[in-house]
Specification:
Elements lengths: L2 H6 L1 H26 L11 H4 L1 H28 L5 H20 L3 H11 L2 H10 L3 H28 L6 H18 L3 H24 L2 H5 L3
């Protein structure tokens, strides 16, 4: 396949973009968690300030994890026809909006670095706490978290219901999300990395299947 055909053939380009995104998104999540400088098992408010380089790399990887899931989700929704189409459409829209919102929240890590480098811990914590404006929580954080986590699971359910994948797909997404969230909140290294690994296996398998798909099968889903 020539480069010209790749970029001019809408089916090839969009199918490839969707498949690659479904692989790269959970991979970026895994790498972002692995690079995070926080000491697992203990909450250290100065971890980011003391390790700005690692924090920057981690925040950037996590940002692109959520961004890269967007074309992947659009590709999954595109392939759902008849069974599960309503769920796919609704869940897909909610998920895309959630992912966009959630990716923007990663910028707070950079403010965390500067605040704890330039102000005493108590003052920095007070400022960061005061920045949690109700509009930011209701309009950004909650839609981002709920839309991303619940939305990805429901899109996987719709995809499996359409017959495009087995029920192992939504099961893997559900388990992966729960394990990752629990690990991240409890500062558990094993679970914090195990969750993204499960998500990489689930989304990666579907992503590879889409990459191997013939353009005619992709286009016939219109």
């Amino acid at each position: 396949m020539t480069v010209h055909r790749f970029f001019t053939n809408p089916d090839t380009f969009r199918r490839t973009a969707a498949g690659v995104s479904l692989i790269l998104a959970p991979l970026c999540l895994l790498l972002g968690m692995a690079v995070d400088p926080t000491e697992w098992g203990a909450e250290d408010v100065l971890a980011y300030a003391n390790n700005p380089a690692a924090t920057g790399v981690s925040a950037t990887l996590l940002h692109y994890a959520w961004v890269l899931w967007v074309p992947g989700v659009i590709g999954l929704v595109h392939l759902v026809r008849r069974k599960g189409v309503v769920l796919a459409n609704v869940a897909g829209a909610v998920t895309v909006l959630g992912l966009i919102n959630f990716s923007s929240l990663m910028i707070s890590d950079f403010f965390d670095i500067v605040m704890f480098q330039r102000f005493p811990v108590a003052e920095a914590q007070e400022i960061m706490g005061a920045a949690m404006h109700p509009a930011m929580i209701v309009g950004w954080q909650m839609p981002g978290m709920i839309g991303s986590f619940l939305g990805l699971i429901l899109v996987a359910v719709a995809y499996a219901r359409s017959g495009r994948a087995g029920w192992w797909f939504p099961a893997g997404v559900l388990v992966g999300m729960l394990v990752w969230l629990f690990g991240a909140r409890s500062w558990n290294l094993v679970l914090g990395l195990a969750g993204p690994v499960i998500l990489l296996l689930a989304f990666g398998a579907v992503g590879v299947a889409i990459l191997r798909m013939d353009d005619r099968e992709w286009s016939s889903a219109r």
